[in-house]
């Protein structure tokens, strides 16, 4: 098969479309003929040499894909050759074929085409596991999403609104904020010109956000705690703003607040399977009813993955970038 390979870490041109060994479906796995994959920040980190795949995972980037099952390994039930699926991966999505643990498969939702389905598994699993399973966002609460126009952000807005929460976002510029407004955002904050702590407090009568979904890490840590409501929950899923910061524990104690930090890629198979099962139960009906939909900015041929990475790093997009085989 062909796959995107990384012989030496570096810039986008380190991504090379080349011959690669065919994967084989092991016990509990299926082989998927990839129709599309999606570009995530983690792929950029892997390309740069900062985020290697976990042991046993494919060396190729790509944390989600869509396609058709072409082979089924021992011990797999409930799936058949030819089924159209999308999947959460530990790696390998930037390829023509990938082996996937059966517990990380999802059927392509009704009303979503096969290519577009590649935009779903990673963002939906990330948002659902952090905002709902861990942080426990409830109807009537306020969610603050940093990077509201990203793939994660556009999905978080929709899911929070679908369960009856109020949503605030930060994004850069009027165009991105306008797209967030179209998805139902209640509180629009241009981080280039406004202080999100002040804006969230003003919009909540001084209460603050009940849940914050953060991609920035160290840079926003103190201000995120300031923006939290009493009993608030801060879920950190990215480190774009650095990895080290000082934290005033007295401020955290005063608010009886909680901070969690998670990644998805290296979790044990059973944890991923539980998240995927929850997504299928709770989110797939929302997608199939049309209440929630994937937001796709642009699609590239997979051999042009370098250009897709350049677009991602320019932060000019809204929603997901897809790669097609």
What would you say about this model in short?
This protein has 325 residues and is of the alpha/beta class. The chain is built from ten helices and 15 strands. Helix 5 runs parallel beside helix 6.
- Tally of contiguous helical segments: 10
Q: Terminal Cα separation, in Å?
A: 11 Å
Structural class: alpha/beta
Quaternary:
single chain
Helix content: 25-40%
Broad shape: globular
Characterization of this structure:
The protein has 325 residues and is an alpha/beta fold. It has helices at residues 41-48, 121-134, 151-162, 174-182, 196-203, 221-227, 249-254, 269-282, 284-288, 305-314; strands spanning 2-6, 15-19, 29-38, 64-72, 84-88, 97-101, 105-107, 142-146, 166-171, 187-190, 209-214, 228-236, 258-261, 296-301, 320-324. α4 (174-182) links the parallel β9 (166-171) and β10. α2 (121-134) packs across α3, α2 (121-134) packs across α8 (269-282) and α5 (196-203) packs parallel to α6. The protein is globular.
